[in-house]
């Protein structure tokens, strides 16, 4: 130990307190970085099996993995020398030099897992190479090798980890209940099974088989086997969206499909399951208004890129990664999700434009007789019409195309058939040619002055008139603002905003974007800006706090986000106040126009807050309710 002496002289203190740890203690400390709980053991051992080229991996646990973890694979196996060397710290076959860390292509690479696990358990490994006459069996207790002998197991590797943390009682006290630890292990196997659908997996808990998954040819089959066909039917396949550097594939949930946690938000980078707030933010940005606040989307996304473009040597458990081009990955991921959600729009529209009853109508056949109750869809011309866009948010009426006038008289039966929505903008009067009967669906009525009832080929469709009108108004107002800019109003007293130097650079480079969004902002000295106007439709009591939120939102939105991105939350609140409400009776032409305009929207599946606009109740569900099917 170095101590200060008179005259600023330094002298070594022979009575110092710093000591080198023994090899045994050091190995147990290091094991804590890799082996946190039984699920960590399973993860490391299964990754080794996959790196060894296994086609089948069988896992068995007892007492949540505390008593026993057994992993058996049919991989390449090891000879005796390699088996012994694998128990030495930092011994690995996966990298040779420091430069190899810059492009790791395997799941494991540090050579820490086996010695770390063996140092805190009663450990047994049996391994044999294909074609070898005999294998090798090694027994280790607390990091010390007890037995090395010939083994007679099948080709591949079998590892047993018993009495985990038996020599570290303090660590064992912090383990959760057996059920919790078992669920964590099951989650790890699910991750590996999703990440490698071509590999067969099985899990046995306390001698009871939880699942047995054969290798599949597609990711969809593996998702079906693990989560059921109902979830698979609500997923949309990502069709290999790619850039020059990245490829993204997999499945994402349809708009409106969400969970209260991230348990089914799975992302894999080069086959490795990762947890990343950076990726989570990109996924949420991609869903944007298709996701309810506080909910999380369901994703099974695979990001493939050059191993040299991602650093996996960041976290001891390899859960986190660092991208060399994070903005590029983010932008591609956001665009991929937006395009995938948009790609099902045509299919979604077709579903609601299919012939009622699921069969084409004969040429020249008359529309079925349909009696609408007068109290369900009101024909009277006296009640309020759907509000026009110009009436919302104080936008000037000049240049805005008004919607077609709605006829006050009750529609005829023939008018009660609705054809496909036009592709044109809902801001313009829409001219639709008569459509053949096989491309039509039918409005039945309105339930509770809120839900529009329709019939399509699949059964009954319920439309929330408030959510539908919110989506229509939201997209109209957003499109108008993006095309013509945002109307602004001057502040009575301009406000000043002081920001850190990093935010100063960002604001100065994005002044045109902020001004196009209706924010009058200009430089006002070092790290200071003056705000003299804000969008007309915003009710802002504290301009300074509002601007700080604007900066954070736009910085998180990515480079390719809409210039209206920050105002969309305010737009959503505005249209919510002006959209038709429950108990607002609508005349039939108003209902017809609402459905047409909804089908014309870019994202018609949900309102700006992420709630669904339409719900399908299939004929099969109705038949079950009425006992026609079991």
Please render the helix and strand layout as text.
Blueprint: E1 2-5, E2 9-12, H1 23-34, H2 38-51, E3 56-62, E4 68-73, H3 80-85, H4 113-118, E5 122-128, E6 135-141, E7 144-151, E8 156-162, H5 169-173, H6 178-195, E9 200-205, E10 208-213, H7 219-227, H8 229-233, E11 235-242, E12 246-253, E13 258-259, E14 265-269, E15 272-273, H9 277-287, E16 296-297, E17 299-305, E18 310-311, E19 322-323, H10 326-343, H11 345-351, E20 417-418, E21 441-447, E22 451-456, E23 459-464, H12 465-484, E24 488-498, H13 501-509, H14 511-516, E25 520-523, E26 528-535, H15 543-557, H16 568-578, H17 588-600, E27 614-618, H18 619-625
Parallel strand pairs: 3-9, 14-17
Antiparallel strand pairs: 1-2, 3-4, 4-8, 5-6, 5-8, 6-7, 9-10, 11-12, 12-17, 13-16, 14-15, 18-19, 20-21, 21-22, 22-23, 23-27, 24-26, 25-26
Helix pairs in contact: 2-6, 9-10, 12-16, 12-17
Walkthrough of the structure:
It is a single chain. With 630 residues, the protein is of the alpha+beta class. It has four domains: 23-96 and 104-213, Heat Shock Protein 90, CATH 3.30.565.10; 234-343, 2-Layer Sandwich (Ribosomal Protein S5, domain 2), CATH 3.30.230; 349-478 and 579-625, 2-Layer Sandwich (formyl-coa transferase, domain 3), CATH 3.30.1540.20; 487-563, 2-Layer Sandwich (Ribosomal Protein S8, Chain: A, domain 1), CATH 3.30.1370. Helix content is 30%, strand content 24%. It contains 18 helices and 27 strands. The strands form seven sheets. It has an eight-stranded mixed sheet. It has a five-stranded mixed sheet with strand order 11-12-17-14-15, sandwiched between helices. It has a five-stranded antiparallel sheet with strand order 20-21-22-23-27. Helix 9 runs parallel beside helix 10 (326-343). It is globular, with a radius of gyration of 32 Å. It starts with a strand and ends in a 5-residue tail after the last helix.
């Amino acid at each position: 130990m170095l101590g200060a002496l008179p005259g600023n002289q330094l002298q070594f203190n022979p009575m110092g307190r710093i000591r080198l740890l023994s090899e045994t203690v050091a190995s147990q400390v290091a094991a804590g970085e890799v082996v946190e709980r039984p699920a960590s053991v399973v993860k490391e051992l299964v990754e080794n099996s996959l790196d060894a080229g296994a086609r089948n991996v069988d896992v068995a646990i007892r007492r949540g993995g505390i008593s026993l973890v057994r992993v058996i694979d049919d991989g390449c196996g090891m000879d005796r020398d390699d088996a012994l060397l694998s128990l030495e710290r930092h011994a690995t076959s996966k990298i040779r030099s420091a430069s190899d860390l810059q492009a790791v292509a395997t799941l494991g690479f540090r050579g820490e897992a086996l010695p770390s696990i063996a140092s805190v358990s009663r450990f047994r490994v049996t391994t044999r190479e294909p074609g070898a006459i005999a294998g090798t069996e090694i027994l280790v207790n607390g990091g010390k090798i007890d037995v090395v002998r010939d083994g007679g197991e099948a080709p591949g590797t079998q590892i047993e980890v018993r009495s985990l943390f038996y020599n570290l009682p303090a660590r064992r006290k912090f383990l959760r209940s057996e059920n919790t630890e078992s669920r964590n292990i099951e989650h790890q196997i699910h991750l590996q099974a999703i990440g490698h659908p071509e590999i067969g997996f099985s899990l046995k808990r306390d001698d009871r088989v939880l699942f047995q998954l054969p290798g599949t040819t597609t990711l969809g089959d593996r998702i079906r086997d693990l989560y059921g066909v109902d979830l698979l039917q609500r997923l949309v396949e990502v069709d290999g969206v790619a850039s020059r550097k990245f490829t993204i594939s997999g499945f994402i949930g349809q708009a409106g499909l969400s969970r209260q946690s991230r348990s089914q938000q799975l992302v894999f980078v080069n086959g490795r399951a990762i947890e990343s707030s950076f990726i989570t933010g990109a996924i949420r940005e991609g869903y944007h208004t298709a996701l309810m606040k506080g909910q999380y989307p369901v994703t099974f996304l695979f990001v493939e890129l050059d191993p040299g473009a991602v650093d996996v040597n960041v976290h001891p458990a390899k859960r986190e990664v660092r991208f060399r081009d994070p903005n590029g990955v983010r932008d591609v991921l956001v665009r991929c999700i937006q395009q995938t959600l948009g790609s099902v729009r045509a299919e979604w529209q077709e579903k609601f434009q299919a012939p009622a009853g699921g069969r084409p109508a004969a040429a020249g056949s008359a529309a079925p007789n349909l009696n609408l109750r007068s109290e369900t869809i009101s024909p009277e011309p006296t009640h309020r019409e759907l509000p026009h866009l110009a009436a919302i948010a104080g936008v000037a009426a000049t240049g805005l195309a008004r919607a077609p006038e709605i006829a006050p008289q009750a529609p005829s039966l023939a008018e009660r058939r609705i054809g496909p929505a036009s592709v044109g903008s809902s801001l313009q009067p829409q001219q639709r040619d008569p459509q053949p009967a096989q491309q039509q669906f039918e409005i039945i009525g309105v339930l509770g002055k809120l839900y529009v009832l329709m019939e399509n080929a699949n059964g009954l469709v319920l439309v929330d008139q408030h959510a539908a009108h919110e989506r229509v108004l939201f997209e109209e107002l957003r499109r108008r603002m993006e095309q013509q800019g945002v109307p602004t109003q001057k502040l009575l007293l301009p406000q000043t905003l002081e920001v850190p130097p990093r935010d100063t650079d960002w604001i100065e480079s994005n002044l045109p974007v902020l001004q196009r969004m209706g924010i009058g902002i200009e430089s006002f000295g070092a790290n200071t800006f003056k705000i003299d106007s804000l969008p007309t439709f915003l009710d802002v009591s504290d301009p300074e706090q509002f601007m700080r939120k604007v900066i954070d939102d736009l910085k998180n939105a990515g480079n390719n986000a809409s210039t209206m991105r920050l105002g969309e939350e305010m737009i959503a609140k505005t249209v919510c106040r002006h959209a038709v409400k429950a108990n607002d009776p609508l005349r039939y032409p108003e209902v017809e126009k609402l459905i047409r305009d909804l089908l014309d929207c870019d994202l018609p599946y949900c309102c700006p807050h992420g709630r669904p606009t339409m719900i399908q109740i299939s004929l099969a569900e109705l038949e079950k309710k009425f006992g026609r099917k079991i």
